[in-house]
């Protein structure tokens, strides 16, 4: 993994590390939203929601387009996010052990 990939991955984890940003992503899974709609759904100030959206934009999880005076946000297709969520799902399965993980991912031990 090169420095650029590490930086992109760090930005992704930072974006996913906040419950409010996860809530925003849940809303955007349904479809495109105006900032105003998100502020109403979340019960937060517009400036707070905008700051969270900026973080999500920086990590390339969402995109924005202008429609008149409104900013419309939508979820980007993110293979990187899908991979992270898939691995997180594997790790959260009950009964998974380090031995079991290493058997299924032998290359992971070699990368250490």
From TrEMBL:
Comp. bias intervals (Basic and acidic residues): 100-112
GO molecular function, one term: DNA binding
Protein keywords: DNA-binding, Transcription, Transcription regulation
Region (Disordered): 92-112
The HTH arsR-type domain, residue ranges: 1-96
InterPro entries: ArsR-like_HTH, HTH_ArsR_DNA-bd_dom, HTH_MetalResp_TranReg, WH-like_DNA-bd_sf, WH_DNA-bd_sf
Record-annotated membrane-spanning stretches: none
CDD domains: HTH_ARSR
Entry superkingdom: Bacteria
NCBIfam families assigned to the protein according to its UniProt record, in alphabetical order: HTH_metalloreg
PANTHER family referenced in this protein's UniProt entry, alphabetically: TRANSCRIPTIONAL REGULATOR, ARSR FAMILY, TRANSCRIPTIONAL REPRESSOR SDPR
Protein name according to UniProt: HTH arsR-type domain-containing protein
Organism: Glutamicibacter uratoxydans
């Amino acid at each position: 993994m090169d420095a650029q990939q590490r930086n992109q991955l760090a930005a992704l984890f930072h974006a996913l590390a906040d419950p409010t940003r996860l809530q925003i992503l849940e809303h955007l899974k349904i479809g495109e939203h105006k900032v105003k709609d998100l502020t109403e759904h979340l019960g937060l100030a517009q400036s707070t929601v905008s700051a969270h959206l900026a973080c999500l934009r920086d990590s390339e999880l969402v995109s924005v387009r202008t429609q008149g005076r409104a900013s419309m946000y939508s979820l980007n297709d993110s293979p990187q996010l899908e991979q992270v969520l898939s691995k997180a799902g594997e790790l959260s399965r009950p009964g998974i052990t380090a031995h079991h993980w290493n058997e299924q991912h032998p290359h992971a031990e070699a990368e250490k």
